[in-house]
Amino acid sequence: MGPSALLDPVLSSRLKLTRAQREEVRDLLAAKYQAMNKIGMASLSVSVEAHAHPEFHDLLRAMDLEAQDMRSQADATIYSVLTPSQRRTMTRLLAPASDRKSGRQPANK
Fold first, then answer.
1. Contact assessment for residue 1 and residue 94, using Cβ atoms and an 8 Å cutoff
2. Structure confidence at residue 49 as a pLDDT band (50, 70, 90)
3. What is the pTM of this model?
4. How wide is the angle at C-alpha 26 spanned by C-alphas 20 and 28, nearest 5°?
5. Who contacts 13 (Cβ-Cβ below 8 Å, separation ≥6)?
6. Total domain count for the chain?
7. Domain-embedded: residue 90
8. Is residue 107 one of the residues assigned to a domain?
9. Which domain holds residue 69?
């Protein structure tokens, strides 16, 4: 689960998010999804004829890398809204059950 999990009322309550934090997360997620949609629409707008050209595949790879970078930056910005304690709690709560049972610490984002 990514930062969109912060929209879950149960999780936001467990993290004790303030109203300002919830609003900022909501706004940042909306901006992230809007940017991702633009990238997706740009890749769909490429003509069918372009698929036959090698440059097309390079373009798609570049767009995919751009989308990954944008997603990582947006997620980091969203997580920065949380306090360190809230980030630790979220990581713990969203860890796979096997990690919680074994006591392993999941990787922090």
1. yes
2. low
3. 0.70
4. 100
5. none
6. 1
7. yes
8. no
9. 3-98
Q: Would residue 20 count as lying in a domain?
A: yes
pLDDT in tens, 55-79: 777 877 787 888 889 889 999 999 9
* Cα–Cα distance, 94 to 21 (Å, whole number): 19
Q: Is residue 103 part of a domain?
A: no
Residues 6+ apart with CB under 8 A from 15: 6, 82, 86, 89, 90
Secondary structure of the chain as H, E, C letters = CCHHHHHCHHHHHHCCCCHHHHHHHHHHHHHHHHHHHHHHHHHHCCCHHHHHCHHHHHHHHHHHHHHHHHHHHHHHHHHCCCCHHHHHHHHHHHCCHHHHHHCCCCCCC
Structure tokens that stand for 44 in this block: 């769909």
Burial of 24 (0-12, 13-18, 19+ CB in 10 A): middle
Residue 58 CB neighbour total at 10 angstroms: 10
- Rounded to whole angstroms, the Cα distance separating 83 from 7 reads 16
